[in-house]
Amino acid sequence: GKATADELSGGTFTITNLGVQEIDAFTPIINPPECAVLGVGRLRKQMVVFNDQPAVRTMLVLSLTFDHRLVDGAPAARFLQRIKLFCENPYLWLS
């Protein structure tokens, strides 16, 4: 079923996905009193250099918006790097 407005209120963090709308990247807006929101764009194929060779890879843009009064930039960047690590190496979820 669908979540009610009451069930969605009072959170501290949101993950929002506009990838299903074919949006590559966007800047999500924090819903107070939350401290941060992670925006997820669509998966898309892109030509990149991988292991010094041209390759078509699946790419994803993640955008993290956070309240600097509550979260410093360095820990927020480390959090986003950790999300990136798990997206690039999904087998890590099993360990």
Distance N to C terminus: 31 Å
Low-confidence stretches: none
Name the CATH superfamily assignment. Answer: Chloramphenicol acetyltransferase-like domain
The biggest sheet amounts to: 3 strands, mixed
Within the largest sheet, what's the order of strands? Answer: 1-2-5
The averaged pLDDT comes out at 94
CATH top-level class? Alpha Beta
User: How many distinct folded domains?
Assistant: 1
CATH topology: Chloramphenicol Acetyltransferase
What is the strand content? Answer: 25-35%
CATH architecture: 2-Layer Sandwich
Summed up, the helix count is 2
Description of the molecule:
It is a single chain. The protein is of the alpha+beta class and 95 residues long. It has one domain: Chloramphenicol acetyltransferase-like domain (Chloramphenicol Acetyltransferase, 2-Layer Sandwich), CATH 3.30.559.10. The strands form 2 sheets. It has a 3-stranded mixed sheet, covered by helices on one side. A two-stranded antiparallel ribbon has the order 3-4.
Write the layout of secondary structure elements.
Layout: H1 5-8, E1 13-17, E2 36-40, E3 44-50, E4 53-59, E5 62-66, H2 73-88
Parallel strand pairs: 1-2
Antiparallel strand pairs: 2-5, 3-4
